[in-house]
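Lab manual, section 2.4: Encoding a predicted structure.

Procedure: take the sequence of the chain (204 residues), apply the prediction step described in section 2.3, and record the output as structure tokens. A sample record is shown.
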Amino acid sequence: MLNPATFDFPTIVETVAGAWVENVVRGDPTLEPAFIEAARRLVARGAVAISSTCGFSIRHQPAIAASVRVPVVTSSLLLLPVLLRQLPAHARIAVLTYDSAHCGEDLLGIEDPGERTRIVIGGIEGGKFWRDELKRPAPPTDVAAIEHDVAACIARLRAKHPNIATILFECAAFPAVAPAIRRTVKLPVYDITNLCRLTMASIA
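Recorded output:
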């Protein structure tokens, strides 16, 4: 998300004061005013849409969206209702997350119990990238470590749930390995960059 080569449109960046991996992932409600202020600064600088570098920011989606007059897409998890409807009722979606211990029901936005059973969640907690991201400052992103941990997690989930038909990356670092994972698993893989491109394509 922070690599300017990711998108074919210009991006600008603001930092949410006080936000670190650990408190965004676990859900610190006191961060919400800082998220709102960062969003307003982006709009003041000319942003026509807003996203974030952590899918767990979805906790603040309603407040941010209410505070600005541009589209807000904080997390790829917003795609879940759409993706479920693309598939037959027996098929499952695997949500690959940075930390499955903190990716609970409240983040999925799926109220129907039957629909919820079609979502399986797997995380890379304990892996090298997970540990690196908790350091201050975080070291350079180890793409090989992400690919290794994500591929291993998908293999575990598919062994348990062979009817997985689509994969959704929650973590905004995972798009770096999405092409490699698509080639390996031969399944559709969605991430936050897909949602950002869709959003920007709708804006004149």
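Check your result against the sample. The chain has a mean pLDDT of 95.
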